[in-house]
Design goal:
There is one protein chain. By secondary structure, the chain is mainly α. The chain contains seven helices and two strands. A two-stranded antiparallel sheet has the order 1-2. A hairpin with a 5-residue loop joins strand 1 and strand 2 (127-130). Helix 1 (3-39) runs antiparallel to helix 2 (54-78).
Length: 219
Amino acid sequence: MEPQNANFLTMRSTWWVACYAVAMAAVESAVVVYLRELHAGPAPVSVLQYVLPQRLLVIEIGREVATLIMILAVAALAARTARDRFLYFAFSFGVWDIFYYIWLWVFIGWPPSLFTWDFLFLIPVPWIGPVIAPVIVSLSLVIGSLWLLARPSFVVPRLAWGLAIVGAVLVVLSFTVDYRYALMAVDPPRFRWELFGAGVIVAVGGMTYWSRTQKEGGP
């Protein structure tokens, strides 16, 4: 396939994946609005201080799994190679997560601040953190995936992938190390910014360094 046609197809796929992620974020945020109205009252300041009934908690975990499957399915349909499927997954996940909070703010004015605590994920333990933290991660995913999608011949070195994995582990730890506070329905005394910051620097820094030192298609 000619490079010009390939670039057009990539742009078209990226556009439709973005549209899907934005629309799905609107649906998901609407579901959250309904749950809060039914069980927590309108727009709680900190959702960590409210506990869903066990029956609804199981359903909520199932909804999270279904969301990941939908994002993965769209990524699989948008790309032909494993590399591009992964990049479309990262891109759609990032767009979905950012617009999830945008739609919540449009619908009910929540979160009142980017530093408001939120439940981020429930599998295998609750992931908690200020809203700005997952937004930073999602912005990094969107920018990084778009950069790599625009450079199909660029080969990311194994060391860079290794650093990205290490960084991701540190970020996940920053979200999960204090999960017991969520079980007690109280806000943690602080967020683990040292773990989060180290994870972002290692992951993004490694990718940025290799993107500048390696030629496209290099080893």
